[in-house]
């Protein structure tokens, strides 16, 4: 039975770095708070991929366990973050970070 | 047998358990309350819980043991920091008894979140594994994101919460990626194990490893508010409720420095030359940018925010030296810094009232003639921040700069001392307003609640004590860093 060729580990790390970078660029360039938050999640998923790939390559469970914690914390973060976005939306009518500029100097 | 050992391990974390239990108790008590007013009962539970936890933390002194398969560790370093956080919690909850009533913070969650934030800090400084450091950091951060936005109808407060949340989550992602890279190159997430593997050359030192180390510096650098990761600090400190600003400026900074120290002085200690080269520049930039921008601030909370950035720079000076014994000066400084900052913010709270925060420096004009007590105590806190003897701030700076000189970082010490001179200008400017200017308008009656006065007096006593007899605290700090 033909088997699929194994994907080299470096490609996983490359993909995780690409995901992380796309996320980071999104956080810096996008103006809508919810899109920024999605980009943050993308960064965390890049991290998760790196942990799983490393755990697989090293044959250790630590990386996989770490991913569970990252996912749990990301969910908690989403709850708090969305609540903050709702508060902003109630007061301002939008969640555009460009227009949230009361504090400066 | 194994199970019994597991259960008995929990006796080591009684302070954490007490804090968690009291936080949950506050939530239950709040659920059964009818009217939505500021809650005295929750404040008392918070205060009592933190005093009890402080007592149990005191019992852990000179005990040393790894816990839960090396995820957690009990040692003097952790115990010192835990005591510091609990002292901060006691002072902040005393202030909050009155401040929450004045600002109509009618949510009991306030006290629960204060305690959960301290729980996260305690976990952070005692963890020996990247997982627990991350969990502690997030427990602390999530509590503080909410606390920043506590004034739901105040756009400034909500804006502070939004900014802190977005940038905080951004920095956490960098910290995590740093941990992932370190794990991928070394094969361990255990900090002590990492140090051992490095010293025994058990794995190849790849560029990936150094990337991981740099990203960890970014992640921690954000939490301690060092330049160039300081953008959030002034905005968040200004927008957040003042009691929370004091809590953040002292507690979060101390917790981040605690975890930072443990990771870099045990895990990455063999690479001191590499990371201290990066941190040298960060320390210099942090001191200069913090102090220069503080010169032109007119809002006292913003001024204290920039001064807190500058103080992170001074503490980094001692960090850069990479000397295990002299790092005790960091612990001493964080302790002293907590008292002078909480004292100064309490004075800021004292002068404000609901809807009228009086945070402009102009509102301090002529204070000495009307309210000599407030002016004198503010003067003591500002002089201590500036580093004038015989106050604690002077001894803190003295230990830090002598650490830099002993390890031959002469330039760093010179830049640090020059920066303290610049800093004296903006602290003395507030002093000048209080003592030599005519008041522009009436401040009205000041609410001399015992809650504020006790905290101010305790802070002054602590500053005088650490300034005149620093030996006790510096010895405690030296015992704490003996674990490295």
Widest sheet, order of strands of chain B: 1-2
Summed over residues and divided by their number, the pLDDT of chain A gives a mean of: 88
Number of strands of chain B: 2
Largest sheet of chain A: none
Discrete helix count of chain A: 3
Describe the structure concisely.
The complex is a heterodimer of chains A (105) and B (484). With 105 residues, chain A is an all-alpha fold. Helices cover 74% and strands 0% of the residues of chain A.
Task: Give an overview in words.
- The complex is a heterodimer of chains A (105) and B (484).
- Chain A has 105 residues and is mainly alpha-helical.
- Chain A has helices at 9-29, 33-58, 62-92.
- Chain A has three helices and no strands.
- The radius of gyration of chain A is 18 Å and the shape is elongated.
- The model of chain A has no long low-confidence stretch (mean pLDDT 88).
- By secondary structure, chain B is mainly α.
- In chain B, helix 7 runs antiparallel to helix 9 (207-223), helix 7 (155-186) packs across helix 10 and helix 9 (207-223) runs antiparallel to helix 11 (242-267).
- The longest helix of chain B has 32 residues, at 155-186.
- Chain B is globular and about 70 Å long.
- Chain B starts with a helix and ends with a helix.
- The chains are: A mainly alpha (105), B mainly alpha (484).
Give keywords.
heterodimer; A: 105 residues; mainly alpha; Helix Hairpins; 0% strand; elongated; B: 484 residues; two-stranded antiparallel ribbon; 20 helices; globular
Describe how the helices and strands are arranged.
The complex is a heterodimer of chains A (105) and B (484).
Chain A: H1 9-29, H2 33-58, H3 62-92
Helix pairs in contact in A: 1-2, 2-3
Chain B: H1 2-8, H2 14-31, H3 40-59, E1 65-67, E2 72-74, H4 76-102, H5 109-126, H6 130-148, H7 155-186, H8 191-199, H9 207-223, H10 232-239, H11 242-267, H12 272-294, H13 300-320, H14 328-351, H15 367-370, H16 372-386, H17 392-406, H18 410-436, H19 450-468, H20 471-481
Antiparallel strand pairs in B: 1-2
Helix pairs in contact in B: 2-3, 2-5, 3-4, 3-5, 4-5, 4-11, 4-14, 4-19, 4-20, 5-6, 5-11, 6-7, 6-11, 7-9, 7-10, 8-11, 9-11, 10-11, 10-13, 11-13, 11-14, 12-13, 12-18, 13-14, 13-17, 13-18, 14-16, 14-17, 14-19, 14-20, 16-18, 16-19, 17-18, 17-19
């Amino acid at each position: 039975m033909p088997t699929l060729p194994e994907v080299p580990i470096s490609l996983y790390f490359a993909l995780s770095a690409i995901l992380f970078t796309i996320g980071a660029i999104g956080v810096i360039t996008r103006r809508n708070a919810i899109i920024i938050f999605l980009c943050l999640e993308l960064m965390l998923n890049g991290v998760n991929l790196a942990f799983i790939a490393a755990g697989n390559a090293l044959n250790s469970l630590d990386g996989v366990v770490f991913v569970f914690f990252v996912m749990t914390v990301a969910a908690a973060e989403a709850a708090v973050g969305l609540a903050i976005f709702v508060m902003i939306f109630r007061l301002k009518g939008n969640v555009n970070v460009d227009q949230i500029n009361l504090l400066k100097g | 047998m194994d199970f019994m050992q597991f259960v008995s391990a929990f006796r080591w974390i009684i302070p954490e358990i007490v804090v968690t239990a009291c936080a949950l108790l506050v939530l239950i008590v709040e659920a059964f309350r009818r009217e939505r007013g500021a809650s005295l009962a929750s404040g008392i539970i918070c205060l009592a819980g933190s005093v009890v936890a402080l007592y149990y933390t005191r019992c852990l002194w000179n005990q040393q043991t790894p816990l839960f398969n090396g995820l957690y560790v009990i040692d003097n370093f952790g115990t010192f920091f835990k005591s510091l956080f609990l002292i901060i919690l006691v002072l902040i909850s005393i202030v909050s008894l009155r401040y929450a009533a004045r600002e109509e913070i009618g949510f009991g969650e306030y006290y629960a979140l204060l305690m959960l934030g301290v729980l996260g800090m305690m976990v952070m400084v005692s963890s020996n594994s990247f997982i627990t450091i991350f969990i502690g950091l997030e427990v602390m951060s999530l509590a503080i994101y909410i606390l920043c936005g506590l004034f739901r109808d105040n756009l400034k407060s909500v804006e502070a919460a939004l900014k802190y949340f977005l940038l905080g989550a951004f920095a956490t992602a960098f910290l995590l990626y740093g941990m992932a890279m370190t794990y991928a190159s070394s094969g361990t997430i255990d900090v002590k194990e990492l140090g051992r593997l490095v010293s025994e050359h058990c794995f190849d030192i790849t560029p990936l490893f150094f990337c991981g180390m740099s990203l960890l510096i970014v992640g921690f650098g954000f939490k301690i508010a060092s330049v160039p990761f300081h953008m959030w600090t002034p905005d968040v400190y200004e927008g957040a409720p003042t009691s929370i600003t004091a809590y953040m400026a002292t507690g979060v900074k101390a917790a981040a420095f605690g975890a930072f120290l443990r990771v870099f002085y045990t895990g990455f200690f063999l690479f001191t030359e590499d990371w201290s080269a990066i941190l040298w520049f960060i320390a210099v930039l942090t001191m200069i940018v913090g102090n220069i921008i503080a010169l032109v601030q007119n809002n006292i909370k913003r001024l204290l925010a920039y001064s807190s950035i500058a103080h992170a720079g001074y503490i980094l000076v001692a960090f850069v030296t990479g000397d295990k014994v002299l790092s005790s000066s960091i612990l001493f400084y964080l302790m002293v810094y907590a008292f002078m900052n909480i004292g100064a913010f309490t004075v800021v709270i004292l002068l404000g009232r609901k809807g009228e925060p009086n945070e402009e420096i102009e509102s301090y004009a002529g204070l000495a003639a009307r309210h000599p007590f407030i002016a004198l105590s503010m003067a003591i806190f500002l002089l201590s921040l500036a580093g004038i003897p015989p106050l604690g701030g002077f001894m803190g700076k003295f230990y830090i700069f002598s650490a830099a000189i002993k390890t031959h970082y002469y330039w760093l010490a010179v830049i640090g001392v020059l920066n303290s001179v610049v800093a004296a200008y903006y602290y003395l400017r507030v002093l000048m307003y209080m003592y030599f200017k005519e008041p522009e308008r009436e401040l009205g009656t000041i609410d001399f609640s015992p809650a504020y006065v006790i905290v101010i007096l305790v802070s002054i006593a602590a500053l005088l004590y650490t300034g005149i007899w620093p030996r006790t605290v510096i010895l405690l700090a030296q015992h704490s860093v003996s674990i490295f």
